Structures are given as structure tokens and as C-alpha cells.
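User: For my dataset I need records formatted as: sequence, then C-alpha cells, nothing else. Please produce one.
Assistant:
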Amino acid sequence: MTFSQLWPVIWEGTKETLYMTLWSGLFSYLLGLPLGVLLTITKRDNILAAPTFNAVLGAIINFLRSIPFIILLAMLFPVTRAVMGSAIGTRSIIFPLVMSAFPYVARMVEGSLEEVDRGILEAAQSMGSTNNQIIFKVLLPEAVPSLVNGAAIVMTTILAYTAMASAAGGGGLGALAITKGYQSRKFEVLYSASIVLVLLVQLISVSGTRLTRRLDHRKK
């Protein structure tokens, strides 16, 4: 296969991979961010302490996190078909990707918020700040560098999951490497798709690290 034949195939696979990764990342954070905040503020001795609720929510999150993506993908076939109209395809695979990633996001957000200095929260409370003010004007802003770093990790994880999505006809570089590369014995496709995947992971990781450093006022 010549470069002129290979490039359109790789480019199409790259677009599909980015489509799945970005949309899955967005919806995962729409679900996972509020859950991560809840996991933090409902802990014992926190601003909205509810230990029983926290334990139940934490157990559910841990249960969902413990299911390997490829197994969750198969388990969710009927639900995916009902929600997305089909259980296969690049668009449909976003649903299981989100279901697999949002519990991970919740724990990443929780970890980021736990890094915020307790003294800052106590100072806000002593000044009479409401819970909403503490969450949105103190807790989340102070955790932004760590949240950005966590987002980079989440996005690279989702990117890796898209490669497994070929099991459900998900498309993208992973499917390209397996179906048109390995199975068709076209190793130039296999290696090219793999290289682009590695480059995308590196791009996300490096961008996340640099942005985290720029936002982290503690290191200035």
C-alpha cells in the first residue's frame, strides 16, 4: 500500500478515534465531576458530612470501576442498543465508553479535591461562606491544576479503550490496526495506526503536564 493510499485510511481512523475520545471524555466528566465532588464533601468531617451515603456511593463507584471495559462492553450491548439505536458503530460505542470512564473520573476528581489544603477550607468556613461558595469558589478553583492533570490521564485511558472498541465495530485506529492491518496482513497499516495512537497519547500527556504546570500557582 502506497502512502497516497495509506494516508486517507489513517486520517479517517484518526478522526473516528478523536470523535469517540472527545465525546466520551465530555460526557464522562458531566457525570463523574459531580459524583467526585459528592464523594469528597460527604466524607466524615467535611462540609456536607453523610458517611452512610458516602459509603454507598463509594461502593457503587468501586463496583463499576472493577468491571474490565471489554466485559462491560458486552454486558451493555442491550442497553447500548436501546439508548443509541444500535450496539455497534463509532457513535454507539460512546455509551459504553462513558459508562466505563465516569466512575474513574469520579475517583480522579475526588483525589484532586482531597489535595486542597484543609486550612483554606477552614478559612472559608470561618468567614461564613456557604457550602456552594466553598465548592465553586474555593474547592474546585484550588484543585484546577490537579483536575487538569487528572483529565489528561482520563483522556489517555479512554483513548486506549477506543482501541478495544473494535470488538463492537467501534471503528477508529484500533479497529483499523486489527481488521485492515493484522487480519488483512497489511502490516504497514498496523504499524502506522499504532504509531499514530502512541503519538496521540503523548500529545495528550505532554499537553496536560504543561498546562498543569502553568496553572499550579504553588510552584510559582
